[in-house]
Structures are given as structure tokens and as C-alpha cells.
Specification:
Number of domains: 2
CATH superfamily of the largest domain: HAD superfamily/HAD-like
Structural class: alpha/beta
Shape: globular
Radius of gyration: 16 Å
Number of strands: 7
CATH topology of the largest domain: Rossmann fold
Distance between the termini: 8 Å
Order of helices and strands: EHHHHHEHEEHEHEEH
Strand content: 15-25%
Largest sheet: 7 strands, parallel
Number of helices: 9
Bound molecules: magnesium ion
CATH architecture of the largest domain: 3-Layer(aba) Sandwich
Length: about 200
């Protein structure tokens, strides 16, 4: 059976909202969710290189990651898919050293997962071929469908891997995501309806 590809940040976890909370709490900068019109939060919030580095350092601490709330509906839908016998692959672009807290988060919220892939989605790390794989190596795996929020990844999966992508509508992915294999959805209920449990 083929796997369903499920991204983590801003697909399962309310990560961008958590970024905004930290920006206000630790940097004294206030932005709204709708202002995040660029996938790069540093660009969207006009942060300096140092500010962006510090923001990412804070966000990727284990305690911070564990405190990110889940996106409404996500866990329920994945539990339904899993109960129906479908394989769930979590495919994240987080840094490799966030593996442990990420697994803890999945378990804490009862997210079913058969496999976890850490993929160098954005050329940020050095893939080591085992814990962290390259985008090229991801192509060796077959998925029947992906759920993503990243415009770059949605286009890569659709155009390079020829797979259907359910794109969760976000301010940062409203442009450059036109592809016949990319469909836009506003929440997990819409995604569940678009991907019937007997589909994979
Ligand atoms: Mg994401």
C-alpha cells in the first residue's frame, strides 16, 4: 500500500502562529497571521539575518516545539485514515536534531505515523542519507497523495514526483502554486472530503 505524505509544520502543527507568539514575546514585534505572505518568515516580517537566526534557534528548542498546538481536525483525519488501514508518512523539513521532540509531539497528540522522513526540503542542512535525506532521495519513495503548506514543496511534488498535492490554504502559498495536481483546501475537513479513506 502506498503512503500518504503529511508535512508537519503548518499542516499538523500551528507553527506559524507559534512564530508570531515568540516574535512578540522575545522580540517585541507584532505581526498578524495574514501578514505572513512569504514562506520565509524572515522576509515576511522583514527580520535581520541575526533576528531570523535567533528566531529559528528559539523555535527549534525541544520545549518550544512540544508546546505548539495541533491544527484543528488534523489528528482526527489522520486517525481515520490510519484506522482504515492507510500508511501515514510524516515528511518534515525541520532540522535533523529536532527528531526526538518531533516524535514526542506526534505521540503526545496521538498522531498515527508509520514512518518519519526528515528531508532537506530547502537546502538548509547537509543530508547524511540516513536520518536526513535529500529531495533527490525522496524521489525514491512513492506516495499516493501529499498534504503540504509549502509552495516550493507543493510544486516540487506535483511537477517532479507527479503526485497529487492537497495544499492547505495559507497567506504564504497563495501565489506560484498553480498546477493541475495541486488542489487548495481551507481546512482538514475539506482535505478529508477530497481524499476519501478508500482512495489510497
Ligand atoms: Mg510546512
Amino acid at each position: 500500500m502506498q503512503s500518504v505524505y503529511v508535512d508537519m509544520d503548518d499542516v499538523l502543527c500551528q507553527t506559524a502562529q507559534h512564530f508570531l507568539t515568540i516574535l512578540e514575546r522575545d522580540f517585541g514585534k507584532r505581526f498578524t497571521f495574514e501578514q505572513l505572505t512569504d514562506f520565509d518568515v524572515g522576509q515576511a516580517c522583514e527580520l535581520t539575518v541575526d533576528e531570523k537566526q535567533e528566531l529559528y534557534r528559539i523555535v527549534h528548542q525541544g520545549e518550544e516545539l512540544l508546546n505548539i498546538p495541533p491544527i484543528p481536525g488534523a489528528v482526527d483525519v489522520l486517525q481515520q485514515w490510519s484506522a482504515a488501514g492507510h500508511d501515514i508518512a510524516i515528511v518534515t523539513g525541520r532540522p535533523p536534531d529536532t527528531y526526538e521532540p518531533s516524535v514526542q509531539w506526534l505521540n503526545k497528540h496521538g498522531v498515527p505515523h508509520n514512518r518519519i522522513f526528515i528531508v532537506d526540503k530547502y537546502g538548509r542542512f547537509a543530508p547524511d542519507g540516513s536520518q536526513c535525506i535529500s529531495l533527490e532521495a525522496l524521489r525514491n519513495h512513492t506516495f499516493c497523495w501529499a498534504v503540504e503548506d509549502s509552495p516550493i514543496m507543493a510544486m516540487y511534488l506535483a511537477s517532479q514526483m507527479k503526485m497529487p498535492v492537497a495544499l492547505l490554504d495559507r497567506p504564504w502559498n497563495r501565489k506560484d502554486t498553480n498546477h493541475e495536481l495541486v488542489s487548495r483546501h481551507h481546512n482538514w475537513i475539506e482535505i478529508a472530503q477530497a481524499l476519501p479513506s478508500n482512495n489510497p
